[in-house]
Design a protein that fits this description.
- Strand 2 and strand 3 form a beta hairpin.
- The protein is α/β, with parallel strands linked by helices and 426 residues long.
- The structure holds pyridoxal-5'-phosphate (PLP).
């Protein structure tokens, strides 16, 4: 492919965009065009993505938390290639060593008594499973989650998510689902009662705009759950696997959930996989009904070997520590940027390499993302809060690349400020 002429490459780009408009979604095609992303991704390596022309983009988005161990990690690629030749998919009738090994590794690294895992193919599927397990174990229906939360877009996870625009067209949602303000213990206390099966929260809200709760919030919620016989489900799909500077974000708050969900980074940026994990006590409801919850392709051998290698890399390369150090550096630099652009930047906050820059207006955030894309750094706004631009690169990104990205961010901000001043001056 690298032997293609420029003319041929241009044609591929043109045709791909046209096919998006014709066969995928014209709105999406328009969005990418407006966002200055009129090219075709072609290869990737660590924290960089290269388009078909060989242009390098620094990835400060990290697939929304998928590429924690970097892109195309050679060990994961190797393990997956070997498994591909050996046995790509499972019989689902014989025992599978890789699924068993991954489940054991997760039991060892997750906190407390979390021990049993069920594997699906995505984050939303993990959340669906967690909801079902909580209802099955408690025999209760009510689910309490947070406003502004994001747990996925299938009907169950959508029902407990906290942004109306994604929910309204699909109502009615699951019954007995309630959202309360995040980081508000009194509201939680009021919402949770003896009919509640579970409280489901992200330890740090990702798509809600990188919202970090008070130190004691989650432990107080856990106490409320215990008082009412409800389970605490922590959705670590975006915050887990080193992202926040610890293997799991709940460790910052000394809270152990009854059920944890994982996905995104678990497949090492190579294959899709999700999981929900719980304790032997809770899992015993599945013992007499091992087929009551199942997935044909979930936990397939390819994804499991990717998961096993990912967990080893996270530990051996001390990626949670790296995330903490790099995150601290970025946050410090961004605070200086905030001082310089205080009229448009309202807040800069983060934990590890999950960092948000909050602007006074969503249009400014969009403009910044466009200016950065133009200069070949990828960022995006958080889905439930378009005023916040997230910085969420692979944890393996070098300080040199972080520095480059920050320089480009500042240059882009200068352009954005110029545009605003020009509009304001007219
Ligand atoms: N939960 C959280 C916290 C997420 O951030 C996401 C996706 O952004 C999901 C669930 C849904 O994951 P998926 O897109 O793999 O279904």
């Amino acid at each position: 492919m690298e032997n293609l002429t420029n003319e041929e490459k241009n044609l591929i780009v043109e045709e791909t965009i046209e096919k998006y408009a014709q066969y995928i979604n014209p709105g999406l095609a328009r969005y990418y065009k407006i966002a200055q992303l009129e090219t075709v991704e072609w290869t990737s390596r660590n924290s960089s993505v290269f388009d078909i022309f060989g242009h390098e983009y620094i990835d400060c988005l990290g697939g929304f938390g998928v590429f924690n161990v970097g892109r195309n990690h050679p060990r994961i690629i190797q393990a997956v290639k070997e498994q591909l030749d050996r046995l790509p998919l499972s019989t689902r009738t014989l025992f599978n060593k890789h699924q068993a090994d991954l489940a054991e590794m997760l039991a060892k690294i997750t906190p407390g008594k979390l021990q049993y895992s069920f594997f699906g193919n995505s984050g939303t599927e993990a959340v669906e499973g967690a909801i079902k397990l909580a209802r099955f174990y408690t025999g209760k229906k009510k689910l309490v989650s947070a406003q502004n939360s994001f747990h996925g877009k299938t009907m169950g996870s959508l029902s407990i998510s906290g942004r109306d625009v994604y929910k309204k067209p699909f109502e009615p949602c699951l019954p007995e689902t309630y959202q309360v303000p995040f980081n508000d213990v009194a509201a939680m206390e009021q919402a949770v009662d003896h009919d509640t099966a579970a409280v489901i929260l992200e330890p740090v809200q990702g798509e809600g705009g990188i919202n970090i709760p008070e130190r004691n919030y989650l432990s107080q919620v856990k106490a409320i759950c215990e008082k009412n016989g409800a389970l605490l489900v922590l959705d670590e799909i975006q915050t887990g696997l080193g992202r926040t500077g610890k293997m799991f974000a709940c460790e910052h708050f000394d809270v152990i959930p009854d059920i944890m969900t994982l996905a995104k980074g678990l497949g090492g940026g190579v294959l899709p996989i999700g999981a929900f994990i719980s304790t032997p006590e809770i899992w015993k409801v599945f013992e007499d009904h091992p087929f009551i919850h199942s997935s044909t392709l979930g936990g397939n051998p390819l994804s499991c070997v990717a998961g096993i290698e990912t967990l080893k890399i996270l530990q051996e390369e001390h990626l949670p520590d790296q995330a903490a150090q790099k995150g601290e550096y970025v946050l410090k630099q961004l605070k200086k940027t905030q001082e310089k652009y205080s009229e448009i930047i309202q807040d800069v906050r983060g934990i590890g390499l999950l960092i948000g820059i909050q602007f006074s207006d969503p249009d400014i955030a969009s403009l910044l993302a466009m200016e950065m894309a133009h200069r070949r750094v990828l960022v995006a706004y958080t889905l439930n809060n378009p005023t916040v631009i997230r910085i969420e690169p692979p944890l393996t990104i070098s300080f040199e690349y972080l520095e480059k990205a920050l320089v480009i961010l500042n240059e882009s901000l200068m352009s954005v400020k110029g545009i605003i001043d020009e509009i304001g001056g007219d």
